């Protein structure tokens, strides 16, 4: 059986039971039935499972916050308020993405078709964009010495590496007795291990791991709890308190803690601070993520369709985000550091990321984001048997 959310009144598909799709987050792929893109034939065929607007809305709103956060980064050295807002948003936008990734990975196993989707939807985009980002840095930043290395993800591609590793380990987390405490223990050990190094950005992979495992353990009723009216009301003072705490902490605390890419020793503190901060940030991130989900619309909105293209927006906006630094846009227009300028930057970031998630952009870059690559894989034995039976009939 599957724990995925099911629209009211929809009947289960005939045996074998349909399983929850394993699309990643951000993900370009809509949830699919076993034969994606086809309409069931025959008078007894059941209607295809519909997307849940809540998750598409959550993915779109989270990717907008990601883009805004990247646009605020140059402003944080000049504005304490911008730094506080930056810290609050970084406290939950990636944890929210990762949690949803885990939730939609619950049915992942080592079945051939799922491994193929993992390769074409995660591994191949990683290779292509890691090369593209490296070439972009060489030229736009005038840095010819920057290496092209698939072992050292640069900028946004770390998420694809992490998603690949997390999903491969999904069967393990489904059989252990206490998956979340174990994942937290792994994250804590990573936070106090400076020798892990930069290969495959393993610090981030391991320190963000608990959010993915929480998603694996969640059920539809958990999201229903977060949608309750009292949770929405309570989330308002919680967010206000978080902003006040962040405003106080801004000059006293490094925002690098929220990136989860360094050990405690690399951040210049004692090892035990890594233990404390990992647990504290995990708790804060889970609370803020719940508050974020509480305000995500449940119904279909004008931007719901964009939730299927968040991987496009995520990876493509990185060229503009980094280009704005390489080309000195923030230095050329000093008015951007004033309150109205900060608002302008936020609106531009939201507009750009929205445009990059639209269907025309998806069609233009589908060759890189979700290539079919049928030539690279053996055909499934059951599919071959079906093809032979059809040819004989």
Features:
single chain, 393 residues, mainly alpha, globular, Nod_factor_acetyltransferase, membrane, acyltransferase activity, transferring groups other than amino-acyl groups, Acyltransferase 3 domain-containing protein
- Residue fraction in strands: under 5%
Structure annotation, total helices:
17
Mean pLDDT across the residues is 85
**Low-pLDDT sequence parts:** 1-48
Quick one: how many beta strands? Answer: 0
- Give, in order, the helices and strands: HHHHHHHHHHHHHHHHH
Radius of gyration of CA atoms, rounded to a whole number: 22 Å
Terminal Cα span:
34 Å
Largest sheet: none
Q: How many individual domains?
A: 1
Bulk shape = globular
Secondary structure: helix percent: 55-70%
Q: What structural class should be given to the helix and strand makeup? A: mainly alpha
InterPro entries: Acyl_transf_3_dom (IPR002656), Nod_factor_acetyltransferase (IPR052734)
Pfam families: Acyl_transf_3
GO molecular function, one term: acyltransferase activity, transferring groups other than amino-acyl groups
Protein name: Acyltransferase 3 domain-containing protein
Describe the fold and architecture:
The protein has 393 residues and is mainly α. It has one domain. The chain is 59% helix and 0% strand. The longest helix is centred in the first third of the chain and has 29 residues, at 112-140. The radius of gyration is 22 Å and the shape is globular. Mean pLDDT is 85; it is low at 1-48.
């Amino acid at each position: 059986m599957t724990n995925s959310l099911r629209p009211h009144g929809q009947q289960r598909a005939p045996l074998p039971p349909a399983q929850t799709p394993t699309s990643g987050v951000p993900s370009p792929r809509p949830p699919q039935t076993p034969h994606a893109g086809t309409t069931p034939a025959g008078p007894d065929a059941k209607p295809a499972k519909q997307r849940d607007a809540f998750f598409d809305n959550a993915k779109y709103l989270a990717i907008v916050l990601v883009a805004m956060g990247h646009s605020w980064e140059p402003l944080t050295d000049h504005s304490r308020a911008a730094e506080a807002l930056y810290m609050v948003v970084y406290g939950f936008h990636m944890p929210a993405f990762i949690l949803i990734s885990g939730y939609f990975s619950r049915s992942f196993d080592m079945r051939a078709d799922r491994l193929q989707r993992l390769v074409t939807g995660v591994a191949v985009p990683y290779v292509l964009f890691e090369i593209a980002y490296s070439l972009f840095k060489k030229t736009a930043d005038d840095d010819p010495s920057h290496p092209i290395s698939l072992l050292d993800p640069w900028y946004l591609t770390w998420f694809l590496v992490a998603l690949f590793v997390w999903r491969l380990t999904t069967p393990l987390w489904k059989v252990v007795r206490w998956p979340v405490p174990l994942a937290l223990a792994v994250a804590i050990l990573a936070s106090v291990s400076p020798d892990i190094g930069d290969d495959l950005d393993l610090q981030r992979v391991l320190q963000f791991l608990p959010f993915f495992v929480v998603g694996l353990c969640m059920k539809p009723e958990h999201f229903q709890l977060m949608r309750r009216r009292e949770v929405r009301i309570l989330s308002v003072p919680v967010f206000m308190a978080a902003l006040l705490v962040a405003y106080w902490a801004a000059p006293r605390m490094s925002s690098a803690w929220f990136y989860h890419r360094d050990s405690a020793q690399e951040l210049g503190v004692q090892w035990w601070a890594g233990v404390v901060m990992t647990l504290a940030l995990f708790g804060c991130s889970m609370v803020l993520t719940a508050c974020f989900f509480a305000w995500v619309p449940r119904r279909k909105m004008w931007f719901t369709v964009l939730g299927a293209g968040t991987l496009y927006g995520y990876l493509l906006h990185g060229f503009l985000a980094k280009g704005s630094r390489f080309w000195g846009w923030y230095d050329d227009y000093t008015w951007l550091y004033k309150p109205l300028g900060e608002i302008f930057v936020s609106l531009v970031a939201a507009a750009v990321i929205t445009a990059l998630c639209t269907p025309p952009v998806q069609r233009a870059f589908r060759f890189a984001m979700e290539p079919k690559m049928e030539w690279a894989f053996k055909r499934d034995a059951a599919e071959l048997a079906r093809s032979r039976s059809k040819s004989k009939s």
